[in-house]
């Protein structure tokens, strides 16, 4: 896999503007197969800044929402009204303010007691919208990923069982360090994507960014390093604070 592209921005605002512009650029032309664009959104403070920007008139008017379906990368197993819910964050930051057609946001029902059934149902929904019989896994057009200081991405945390999931597109994952369950897209889906954009900002991410982006290519020490689309691109969007060790 070619080395990922690295783009460095002055601050989170500039990073988010560039990511929003990239989304507008990608969704501009109608896809050759006429299918909608499928975009997956992560939780976290860094991605939230992008969602807030996408909700502004400047960017919202540039996105053909009628040709876009939004998915979740992962979700905490809490009610959708919880302050910890990624859905609630995405809804408040963006969904409540954009003209996304009904049925075009696909929420992970991670609050369901039967987490396996909720995962299977979400995988089926993902497959239906992205359906392409020529590929085994749902192929998302773009996935926005965050990065934790421990090298996690999505809800794929170091040492967690979902790191080894190869059969399911979506699965529950117990996160020991947080003492909580989550639902997450798995590596087969992440690595089937056409485009991955990592959104990384803040001085606290500088060391993990250095270890991931400056380590030997073969390294798969951290979960984020195993995001290597077989037929897609990976671009890292960092602000200067997070990139300070990448000179
Ligand atoms: C989540 C996210 C997670 C997040 C990273 C970065 O549910 O928390 O999906 O992967 O994107 O932890 O979060 P910050 O940008 O807040 O550091």
Set out the fold topology.
Layout (H helix, E strand, L loop, with lengths): L4 E5 L2 H16 L9 E5 L3 H10 L2 H4 L7 E5 L1 E3 L9 H8 L11 E2 L8 H16 L11 E4 L24 E6 L4 E6 L1 H4 L4 E6 L5 H8 L19 E7 L8
Parallel strand pairs: 1-10, 2-3, 2-6, 3-5, 6-9, 9-10
Antiparallel strand pairs: 4-8, 7-8
Helix pairs in contact: 1-2
The structure holds 6-phosphogluconic acid.
6-phosphogluconic acid (6PG) binds next to helix 2.
Mind explaining what this structure looks like?
The protein is an alpha/beta fold. The protein has one domain: Rossmann fold, CATH 3.40.50. Helices cover 27% and strands 20% of the residues. The strands form two sheets. It has a seven-stranded parallel β-sheet with strand order 1-10-9-6-2-3-5, sandwiched between helices. The chain has a three-stranded antiparallel β-sheet with strand order 4-8-7. Strand 7 (170-175) and strand 8 (180-185) form a beta hairpin. Helix 1 crosses helix 2. The relative contact order is 0.18. The mean pLDDT is 95.
């Amino acid at each position: 896999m070619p080395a990922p592209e690295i783009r460095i921005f002055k601050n989170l605002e500039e990073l988010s503007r560039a990511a929003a512009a990239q989304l507008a650029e990608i969704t501009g032309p109608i896809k050759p197969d006429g299918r909608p664009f499928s975009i997956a959104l992560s939780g976290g403070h860094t991605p939230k800044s992008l969602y807030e920007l996408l909700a502004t008139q400047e960017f919202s008017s540039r996105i053909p929402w009628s040709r876009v379906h939004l998915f979740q990368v992962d979700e905490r197993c809490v009610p959708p009204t919880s302050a910890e819910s990624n859905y609630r964050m995405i809804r408040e930051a963006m969904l409540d303010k954009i003209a996304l057609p009904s049925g075009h946001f696909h929420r992970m029902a991670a609050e369901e007691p039967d987490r396996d059934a909720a995962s299977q149902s979400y995988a089926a929904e993902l497959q239906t919208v992205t359906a392409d019989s020529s590929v085994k896994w749902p192929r998302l057009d773009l996935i926005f990923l965050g990065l934790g200081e421990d090298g996690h991405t999505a809800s794929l945390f170091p040492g967690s069982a979902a790191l080894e999931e190869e059969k399911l597109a979506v699965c529950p994952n117990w996160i020991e360090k947080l003492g909580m369950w989550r639902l997450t897209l798995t590596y087969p889906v992440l690595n089937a994507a056409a485009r991955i954009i990592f959104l990384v900002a803040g001085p606290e991410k500088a060391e993990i960014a250095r270890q991931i982006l400056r380590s030997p290519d073969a390294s798969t020490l951290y979960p984020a390093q195993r995001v290597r689309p077989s037929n897609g691109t990976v671009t890292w969007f960092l602000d200067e604070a997070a990139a300070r060790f990448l000179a």
